[in-house]
Amino acid sequence: MKTIITGDRPTGKLHLGHYFGSLQNRVKMQYDYDTYILIADVQALTDNFNNPDKVRANVKELAMDYLAAGIDPNHSHIYIQSLIPEIAELTVYFSNLISVARLYRNPTTKHEMNQKKELFGEAGESITYGFLGYPVSQAADITALDGEIVPVGDDQLPHIEQTREVVRKFNNVYGETFKEPEAVLSKTPRIKGLDGNEKMSKSLNNCIYLSDDEETITKKVMSAVTDPNKIKKDDPANPDVCMVYYYHKLIDNNLETICSECKKGERGCVACKKELATALSEYLKTIREKRRYYEEHPEEVEKILNDGTEAARNRAKEVMKRVRKNMKLDYFE
Ligand code: ATP
Ligand code: MG
Asked: pLDDT (tens digit, 9 = 90+) per residue, 159-187?
């Protein structure tokens, strides 16, 4: 069985972007792959170092979202990054193999740096060593467990490419040690936000969360961006520029009717939004109900995390024996 390694940052609950971008794939693939799902608390701290309470609180939230969405602890290991010190060790070794200039060129890091001006300055002049280097730590996340397949959203492709470069360099310098991991994208590798932004993202506050109740979903959907040229209820409109139609498409809801009515001006946006809210709420119902079970059984969640972390740690220890041997650091073995 090949190994899947993937994960998320505990910076908030999971949203539709995570679900359609990667989580759905992981749920499907977990039966055919040895699956490890990382809660990346160390990475979350790179831009939340001053907010440890937020990171801590979201570790369990994330675990509950995984379980609710169908990650099966009998087939997947869910584990906590900071409890695998081997990852931190490997990050240090990897940091010699990549130039600072290369890290600056990573388009995802650049984009995120520009979004976080309050932390990193207008032109990124205050960017930290930790944030700039998080793709190196991510390379270690994947390789410390011999990860081969990485299901992710498309913002992660530059990071996986960097991981592959580090792996090649490592193998070149210290001898064949790691396989080059491969990213796996879903059919919808980047889900847009309610505001029409090209990425639904916790940091942008434009998300529908998997755990949102019907009332919250309705409120959010009412704020979604529609065709700006449609002024009156019976104006014809273009569904292709409408976020409401975009989400109808995502959950495959009544598309033919919606599309033709919208184009002919026979469908008001408010009614269309209400229909979407109801359909989305129905779509997420099973996830919400399963989540409630885990909210009421926190001890089960804790055990799953504990067991998953132990399994991941054992694996990382084995990999690091190989790494230290190849790097001539196996002093007393
Ligand atoms: P943050 O704003 O804190 O970075 P995020 O919403 O970007 O949060 P992450 O935890 O950084 O979420 O991302 C975890 C995984 O989910 C990654 O594989 C990422 O590619 C994927 N993902 C996140 N948002 C989307 C999206 N809108 N569409 C598709 N995939 C996404
Ligand atoms: Mg992100």
From this structure: 999 999 999 999 999 999 999 999 999 99
Please work out whether the CB of residue 55 comes within 6 Å of at least one atom of ligand 1.
no
Of 169, 7, 42, 179, the residue nearest 102 (C-alpha): 169
- Tell me whether residue 202 is in a domain: no
Decide: 26 in ligand 1 pocket, CB within 6 A: no
| Displacement of CA 309 from its chain's centroid (Å) | 19
Q: Which domain holds residue 234?
A: 214-283
pTM to 2 decimal places: 0.95
Residue nearest to atom 18 of ligand 1 (CA): 152
- Whether residue 302 sits in one domain with residue 265: no
76, 122 contact by CB (below 8 A) = no
Distance from residue 177's CA to the centre of ligand 2 (Å):
29
Q: Rounded to an integer, what distance in angstroms lies between the CA atom of residue 333 and that of residue 313?
A: 19
Give distance in angstroms: CA of 223 to centre of ligand 2.
23
